[in-house]
């Protein structure tokens, strides 16, 4: 159960990007590409060859502090939606979710919604970090993602 008296437990940012949904989705669904657009400055690297293709998959990411996270894919619709729950390697996820939703709006333009949901977070040691993940940080990821996708 979260203590969200000060900060909303679901944070969302949205932006229109001048690129096709398929191009944007490739940048999100390939973990090796994620550090290039991470606005939280949290992701260091991921091994190549982990491109996500469906729910139930797990990809591994190395964080900037040299910690490793398994990311359990819980939502997936090719080119449209992907969400994962991070965890310590080999452990059950403590309940915070990262989601990306893409909505083509005509031509090569896509509205991208990025959500961080920690309403199910059970590890109190992670609450401070969860509270620090604001809409501005999500927007920073969207801005970096747009820069890559539009180039």
TrEMBL record:
Pfam families: Polyketide_cyc2. It comes from Amycolatopsis minnesotensis. This is SRPBCC family protein. InterPro entries: Polyketide_cyclase/dehydratase, START-like_dom_sf.
